[in-house]
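Q: I'm writing a short explainer about Superoxide dismutase [Cu-Zn] for a general audience and would like to include a description of its predicted shape. Could you first generate the structure from this sequence?
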Amino acid sequence: MHFSTLALATSLLVSAFSSISAQELKAIAYVSAANSEVTGTISFSQESKHGPTWVYANITGLTPGDHGLHIHQFGDLSNGCISTGPHYNPHNETHGGPEAETRHVGDFGNIFAQEDGTAILNFTTHSLKLCGKKSIIGRGIVVHEDVDDLGLGGTPLSNSTGNAGGRIACGVIGYPSI
Ligand SMILES: *[C@@H]1O[C@H](CO)[C@@H](O)[C@H](O)[C@H]1NC(C)=O
Ligand SMILES: *[C@@H]1O[C@H](CO)[C@@H](O)[C@H](O)[C@H]1NC(C)=O
Ligand SMILES: *[C@@H]1O[C@H](CO)[C@@H](O)[C@H](O)[C@H]1NC(C)=O
Ligand SMILES: *[C@@H]1O[C@H](CO)[C@@H](O)[C@H](O)[C@H]1NC(C)=O
Ligand SMILES: [Cu+2]
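A: Of course. Here's the predicted structure. Afterward I'll give you a sentence or two in plain language.
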């Protein structure tokens, strides 16, 4: 067998075994917290291995107005929302808004709650991946009490958390049942 034939056969074999099913490119997080009225779900669906990811969030029980929403480093709720740690930041960047050049991978900016306390988020992004080394599956997601200043507050805390205040609901991003 020629080397090139062998290489081709090997690469076909490898790609067959590393192919990703549609099921693996979906994720869901259910968010809540003790002593909090806030609950909701955030669904993620990535088009293909290198494609964009669609995000749909429906969160209720909020005070009207803006609330910070981020992916945090750990999918660990052993100490409530606190144990989700800091923002998930695999590129060691400064905190920013969802459109900023410098931002954490999981910086969603704010969700806006209507008078009835419901916030809906519906957008598509290239910055969130559900596969590969920087997959967000298994990470935490946190809804905050206050407005995220998108890193424009001019303080060290603004550069790391956006001054978004307390953690009023959180969950773990996992594989969905359907
Ligand atoms: C949001 O979730 C609530 C409660 O689960 C549901 O009643 C409502 O239809 C949902 N709204 C949207 C726009 O997804
Ligand atoms: C992350 O960036 C900061 C400066 O912005 C630097 O001090 C630190 O060493 C970096 N950490 C890693 C792990 O690269
Ligand atoms: C989300 O937004 C897209 C494009 O703006 C729209 O076509 C779609 O109907 C929206 N989905 C939901 C569930 O609201
Ligand atoms: C915040 O980060 C930016 C760079 O992203 C830097 O220019 C600025 O000095 C930082 N501000 C503080 C208060 O750390
Ligand atoms: Cu956060």
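A: For your explainer, you could say: DSSP finds two helices and nine strands in the chain.
Q: Perfect, that's easy to follow.
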